[in-house]
Every structure is written in C-alpha cells, then in structure tokens.
Design brief:
Shape: elongated
Radius of gyration: 15 Å
Distance between the termini: 33 Å
Number of domains: 1
CATH topology: Growth Hormone, Chain: A
Structural class: mainly alpha
CATH architecture: Up-down Bundle
Length: about 110
C-alpha cells in the first residue's frame, strides 16, 4: 500500500476503510491487520467520524476533534486533557456542550 496523503482520522473511519479493502479482496499487510484488530477492540464510537465533523463545526481543531472522537471522554477532566492542542481556554458551558455532543453520537 502506498501513502499518497496523510491526515488525522477517527478509529471509525480507519475501520471502515480497512474493512472495505478486505471485503473487496485486497490482501492487507501485517501492520494493517494489526491496526484493524486494534481498532475493532478499542473503537468506542461507531459514529466517530460524524462526531469529529460536528466538533469541528463547534470550533475545535481537527486533531482535537479526532482525539475526542477516538477516546470518547465522559467527564470534564478527561476532556480538558484532550484540549491540549487548542490555543484557547474554554468555559464550562462549552465543555458541557461538547460532552453532550459526545454522548449524543456515542451513546452505544
């Protein structure tokens, strides 16, 4: 497999891509198989890509939105840690809104 571009991606998106390749008969390399196994075990939100997009609309950077979608924080302390790449601080009202959005997309 050849890398033609790089960007941040949610676990849900990576899973969909790798499973799609496998279903089309593409033989996955060893590292790709290990990544797929990991993703299947640790994905906490099946709609993570949609969540990341929504968080981006709320003003969060792509890397922060993807980290939140992958880790699925359930409390303010965990969420605050994930905001390390943001250049501003956020009010508790905004943070609670982010947690509500996470719960809406990842209530599984």
């Amino acid at each position: 497999m050849k890398v033609i571009a790089a960007r941040n991606a949610t676990y849900a998106e990576v899973r969909r891509i790798l499973e799609g390749l496998s279903e089309r008969g593409v033989e996955l390399e060893s590292i790709e198989m290990r990544v797929l196994d990991y993703i299947r075990r640790f994905t906490k939100c099946g709609r993570g890509d949609e969540l990341a997009e929504e968080l981006g609309k709320m003003g969060l950077s792509e890397i922060t939105a993807v980290m939140i979608a992958n880790i699925v924080p359930r409390d303010l302390d965990t969420l605050r840690i994930l905001l390390i790449f943001e250049s501003k601080t956020f009010e508790n009202e905004f943070l609670n809104n982010v947690l509500s959005t996470v719960n809406a997309y990842c209530a599984e």
